[in-house]
């Protein structure tokens, strides 16, 4: 939820100041990714898509590049961890649990 809300905040800050159609498309794509992450649909895909979007934001027009780095790293980590227990992905495919093996 934190990543989704941070991405939505980033979109609301950058969309009104975006000057090119490309930045508007990226802002809309970021909003879609944020909504999908919030609901928990296609979590590995949307988490992975967060990293290139944030990488583009770093080089395009980042007022705070460290926030973009943080959101990109969190997106990759969410892609590796997978969906949460209350997500749509967990309801559809089952919640994965990793149990360490005894040595």
Task: Note down, in words, how this protein is organized.
This protein is mainly α. The chain has one domain. The chain contains 5 helices and no strands. The protein is elongated.
* SSE order, one letter for each helix or strand: HHHHH
Q: Taking Cα atoms only, what radius of gyration do you get, to the nearest Å?
A: 15 Å
Number of domains: 1
- The coarse overall form would be elongated
Give the tally of β-strands.
Answer: 0
Fraction in beta strands: under 5%
Low-confidence stretches: none
Helix content: over 70%
Tally the helices: what do you get? 5
Q: Termini distance?
A: 36 Å
What structural class do helix, strand and pairing data support? mainly alpha
Nearest-integer average pLDDT: 82
The biggest beta sheet reads:
none
């Amino acid at each position: 939820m934190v990543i989704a809300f941070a991405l939505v905040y980033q979109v609301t800050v950058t969309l009104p100041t975006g000057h090119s159609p490309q930045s508007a498309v990226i802002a809309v794509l970021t909003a879609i990714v944020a909504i999908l992450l919030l609901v928990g649909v296609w979590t590995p895909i949307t988490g992975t898509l967060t990293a290139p979007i944030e990488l583009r934001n770093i080089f395009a027009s980042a007022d705070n590049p460290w926030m973009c780095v943080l959101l990109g790293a969190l997106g990759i980590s969410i892609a590796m961890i997978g969906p949460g227990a209350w997500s749509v992905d967990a309801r559809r495919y089952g919640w994965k649990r990793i149990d360490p093996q005894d040595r």
